[in-house]
What we know:
This protein is mostly helical. It has a single domain, classed as Amino acid/polyamine transporter I, CATH 1.20.1740.10. Helices cover about 65% and strands about 0% of the residues. It is built from 19 helices and four strands. The strands form two sheets. The chain has a two-stranded antiparallel sheet. The protein has a two-stranded antiparallel ribbon with strand order 3-4. A hairpin with a 4-residue loop joins strand 3 and strand 4. Helix 2 crosses helix 8 (about 185-210). The longest helix is centred in the N-terminal third of the chain and has 35 residues, at about 100-135. The chain starts with 9 loop residues before the first helix and ends with a helix.
Amino acid sequence: MKRLFARKTLDLLMEEMAGENRLRRVLGPYSLTALGIGTIIGAGIFVVVGTVAHDKTGPAIIGSFLVSGVACVFAALCYAEFASMAPVAGSAYTYAYTTLGEVFAWIIGWDLVLEYTMSASSVAHGWSHYFQNFIGLFGLSIPEALSRAPFDTNIATGHLMATGTVIDLPALVISTILTIILVIGIRESARFNAAMVIIKLLVVLFVIVVGAFYVNPANWHPFAPYGWKGLSFFGEMFVWGAGPGGQPIGMLAGAGIIFFAYIGFDAVSTHAEEAHNPHRDVPFGIIASLLICTVLYIAVAVVLTGMVSYKDIDIDAPVSAAFKTVGLPWAQFIVSIGALAGLTSVQMVLMLSQPRVLLAMARDGLLPASFFGAVHPKFRTPWKSTILTGVAVGLFSALIPLRVLLELVNIGTLLAFVIVCVAVLIMRRIAPDAKRPFRCPWSPLIPLLGAGFCTILMFSLPSSNWWRLLLWLIAGLIIYMFYGRHHSVLAKMRAVSKP
């Protein structure tokens, strides 16, 4: 039991930082902020907003964005404290290792694998639909059999149904292209991301400013057609706001799904090892990117639900279709360009982040170091795990529908946030004198609010997500018990140090 809950000290983390097999420090505060914005703005505005407003909330999605944003602010402050203390790859995995012990670190690392894979797959799915919308402006189209996943969820029954297609080919293609770019190097990836961020920010501002002239206040009535609730506990035991098939609906239910839109600020912390001055730059990147995106999200939600009735919102390409509905087909071109740029940068940063988590786990012996810990001698990137990530994302995005992907993403991310918030309190107790270049304010209030808000949002998700998460974690624990526990670097060090 002591081995399972053995903690890695901050001193040991700093010693590991001096090793040669490290990543290249090339990112400044603005590059990190761009990475955060690159991950956050994209699927939330261009894809998820349509699904949530249509199925869960109506115009009350504005409140969903606000609730999710508040929860993320609390969690972001906790992430920023840890990132300034331990500027190494691994994000929440590393933070859990230093506070809760090895088995919890494994659980959160395994959970992050689920989060980043499903997130990137969801974004690739959205990219595919906007790409098809874009080429449709020129009279071109993808063959129906290659246009989307072979099955989807029937919202009336909650059951899966066949779509008559074979594979989502564009999603598979974009995943392949990004994998190649990511293997080449972090500097090239950051430059590519920065260009994509500039394009999509200009388009988001275009949507807000131009769309505001076509807002019809009548579309905001009723403001909350599905209610304000949506909190559930394993579906069967307690449901507060249920829709067809027993699925939670309402503003809180929408917050649990729209939470996906904010995933990205935590990805900044996974690149702490590649920051010029991580103690200062990483907290700056986390907080700045989250605040900027929260304001833009709420503004877009106000405009979109005012332009089109929630009943008529296109769930696959909501923003582009909204401009077509109000008689501005030319704007579809601009929005589609922004959406493609935005979704490309989001998927790239997510696929950039996962190999860093796998790298941290491999360095600790919990995964095979020869594969997951391999850093390319020329490009200085975790190239093998990057290729594996690209293959997984490509297959999931091509074969699994958006509704299933979104729900899998959110419950894993929320669990990670809860653990990080709790870990801050534990670290304050076990290492009160540790150097903290950035301190989460008003502790323990902020960490407790972060953990509480994220727990509530977890309960707002359909019960099926809890079972999927449980099965995923059980599979992970089996791997840990049969491999990680026996190859743990920390356990071997402790064994050698004993007389």
